[in-house]
Write a structure and sequence with these properties.
The chain is of the alpha/beta class and about 375 residues long. It is about 35% helix and about 20% strand. It is built from 12 helices and 16 strands. The longest helix is centred in the first third of the chain and has 19 residues. The radius of gyration is 20 Å and the shape is globular.
């Protein structure tokens, strides 16, 4: 394209509350609504792009919705020359506020891919070929053993072949829940057909986590994620030293440097990466490359979010070649503002349309221009 990509001529942000069917509960969250921050970008050729990030997921991103909004409000207005290079603008924003940087980077990439008539994954991939359906986890949060077993059976019957269970609370209750889940998925899909993973979200001390690895291994759990608080890699390394199942880091990893820190201490066998923590696609790709160089297993995750966020993670998984991914964080959303990406038999199929390939039912006129501050809440369509 002669003259380079079309210039950004406008960017707007807003906050939307997405109600949940059931409260989201785990070690570091208890909410009935997802607070989602949206960014809308327009190019000089008329193409537009969207992005979404979780605002009330500070347990992982260390940023609140107010902080994300403040970072967007502090950006230069779209007429400023800084917007001639949105990638550099996103990179500069990644250190102070990674979730805001991810919004800028994805919205611009979505618009640019639409302008080029390409799906977003194709702008990232060097492998060629159209991705097939992408397998995804089914998530199970805190609840009673009976509730957990029922949810797991439904997931197995629906075709999910990976189920990720939130643990990290009372270990006796977690053990009963996990045992009931193992029985439920084996009955529904056949022994060993469904892989189970456990995510403690940093909720256990080293002794409790170490004891838990024994019964988790006995139940055939594929890996235990972030067993101990993220600020103490030595604690996680202690758990891993005697564990009979792989230990993965999540909240402890954000970028390539933190991946190397985990590897240097032998604190984990794998890492769970997220764009919301890395800030930009380039920094996420660098963290992924670092993990692969250090011999770590890699998973790509997302915060609980709407379908726009799910589409983003699916395109990243396809474009960056990540096979273990969480792509359906919208499973519990009662009323979304995005459509165009759907789940079938435990897999997500990427839309055929350019960019992210989804439709967002928000009125851009109701959003706030970047570089200005006003009430940023946007009512979701009925």
């Amino acid at each position: 394209m002669s003259g380079g990509p079309p210039a950004v001529t406008g960017a707007w942000y807003g906050v939307v509350g997405l109600p949940l069917r059931q409260r989201l509960r785990h070690t570091t969250a208890d909410t009935g609504e997802l607070t989602e921050v949206f960014l809308h970008v327009r190019l000089a050729d008329g193409h537009t792009g969207w992005a979404e990030t979780r605002g009330n997921g500070e347990y992982a991103t260390h940023r609140t919705a107010d902080q994300i909004v403040a970072a967007l409000a502090a950006l230069p207005e779209a007429a400023d020359p800084a917007w001639r290079d949105p990638s550099a603008l996103a990179t500069a924003l990644a250190a102070p506020c990674p979730p805001a940087a991810s919004l800028l980077d994805i919205a611009w990439r979505d618009a640019l891919a639409r302008s080029r008539g390409l799906p977003l994954w194709a702008t990232l991939s060097t492998g060629g070929g159209i991705p097939g359906p992408l397998p995804t986890h089914a998530p199970i949060g805190f609840g009673t053993p009976r509730q957990a077993a029922e949810l797991a059976a439904v997931a197995a019957e629906a075709g999910f072949r990976r189920v990720k269970v939130r643990v990290g609370g009372d270990p006796d209750l977690d053990r009963e829940r996990m045992a009931r889940i193992r029985l439920a998925v084996d009955r529904a899909a056949g022994d060993g057909t469904v892989a189970l993973a456990a995510d403690a979200n940093g909720g256990w001390d080293p002794d409790t986590a170490t004891a838990a690895t024994a019964w988790l291994a006995d139940l055939g759990v594929a890996w235990l994620e972030q067993p101990t608080p993220p600020g103490d890699l030595t604690a996680m390394a202690t758990v891993r030293a005697s564990a009979r199942l792989p230990i993965w880091a999540d909240e402890s990893v954000r970028d390539a440097d933190s991946v190397h820190a985990v590897a240097d201490l032998g604190a984990a066998d794998g890492v769970h990466l997220k764009l919301e923590k890395a800030g930009t696609v380039a920094q996420l790709a660098a963290a992924l490359a670092a993990a692969r160089r250090r011999g770590l297993e890699v998973g790509l995750g997302q915060m609980d979010c709407g379908r726009l966020g799910c589409a983003t993670t699916a395109h990243l998984a396809a474009g960056l070649g990540v096979e273990v991914a969480e792509l359906w964080g919208c499973a519990n959303v009662e009323r979304d503002v995005t459509d165009g990406v759907e789940l079938h038999h435990g897999t997500v199929r990427l839309p055929d349309s350019p960019g992210l390939g989804v439709r967002v039912a928000l009125d851009p006129e109701a959003l706030t221009p970047v570089g200005t501050v006003r009430l940023a809440s946007v009512p979701a369509p009925p």
